[in-house]
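LOG
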Amino acid sequence: MQPVAQQAAMAPLHFEKENIMPLTLTVSEGVLPPGSEKATFARLCEAMLKWHGLSGNAVMTPNVVGSIHVLPEERTFSGMHETKVALVEWKVPSFAFADRAIQVGYIEEATSIVHEASGGRQPKQQIWVNVVHAVDGAWGIGGEALSNEQLGARVHSSS
């Protein structure tokens, strides 16, 4: 039997260009009504898919991953003061969110999603959205570090 790392490296990867994009939604307690975090997370993911032209994509949708963090207000800060905050952060390959229209449109929509989910109580000025691009060569899938070129080659070979 081959070691797991060898098996993973040999296994073909099946993903679309913007596949496997982790979202981290971090909010202070009280920003979102209890129990609404999952629906807000889903809406943020659906908006990302929409802005990348991938709504309803059977391959993409199950590969949008992430986590929700609800922190006590005394553990969230703005201007070095305890503040109720909402943070929406995507970690993606550098070719995702590369188009300015996608950046502007998604950030506006994501801010509105969180604001609406808060019942209008969370000021838009205390909702931050950012996108972190992985360093070329540091996008790991199945234990293998892939460059943008390698990701692109696998995308084209799976089309």
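LOG (cont.) second protein
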Amino acid sequence: MPTPAGASVSTLSAASAAAAAGNASAAARAAVQGSASGASTTPAYTVQQTTLANGTIVREYLTQAGTVFGVAWDGPQMPNLATLLGSYFPQYTAGVKASHAAGHVRGPGVVENSNVVVHSGGHMGAFSGQAWLPQALPAGVSASDIQ
């Protein structure tokens, strides 16, 4: 993945990810806080990448203040969306249920509302997705930057 303009990228080691007990968000915040003091420039956002034990890669997009405004994932297994989405998970599940009730039972999971956008799809062995908070995107950052 090329580094988008205005972003910096850091990667957690497997040991750091394991120490976080599967909570990529907590691991990312800790890593960003630990590395932010050494930065000579101030990017619009930071991308924190973690490889989970199952091989799935999770990228978290953080503001300069360390607040997660987006996540993306790809790998052989779905990450725990309840963990990744946190307090936005109920909105995601409600959106999926509404989509199923409307007869859209197959295809990628897409939930879009003013608070959270989640695109999730794939098949056995190859899952990917993105989620972001539309109103929390930093200036100059678009949804297409979350990949």
